[in-house]
Amino acid sequence: MKTWARLGVAALALAVLAACSKVTPANFDKINNGMKKQQVVEILGEPSESSGASFLGLSGGSAVWRDGKTSITVQFINGEVVGKTLDSGEKGTSAY
């Protein structure tokens, strides 16, 4: 019986951790063009990866947030959102 109890606790812990993910369609919808990168970080947390470059006074880049098969990619120019993509690992991908 102790084994079943441990398995139950482990399953519950995994469910709670999965529910805490910030990489969700609801948070994706909160991100709008013109937002500052720090505002996006406040919604999604620190990105899993990011890249950037600067040329003639313009800086641009992107950041990716991942959780399992789901990822949110946000493109920035001069620190402001100019585009975003939600990929749920299924056939449909949303881009704005």
TrEMBL record:
Keywords, in A-Z order: Membrane, Signal
UniProt cross-references to Pfam families, sorted A to Z: BamE
Bilayer-spanning residue ranges: none
InterPro entries to which the protein is assigned, alphabetical: BamE-like, BamE_dom
GO cellular component: outer membrane
Boundaries of every Outer membrane protein assembly factor BamE domain copy: 23-50
Gene3D superfamilies reported in the protein's UniProt record: 3.30.1450.10
Signal peptide limits: 1-18
Name of the featured protein: Outer membrane protein assembly factor BamE
UniProt organism field: Crenobacter cavernae
Protein's gene: bamE
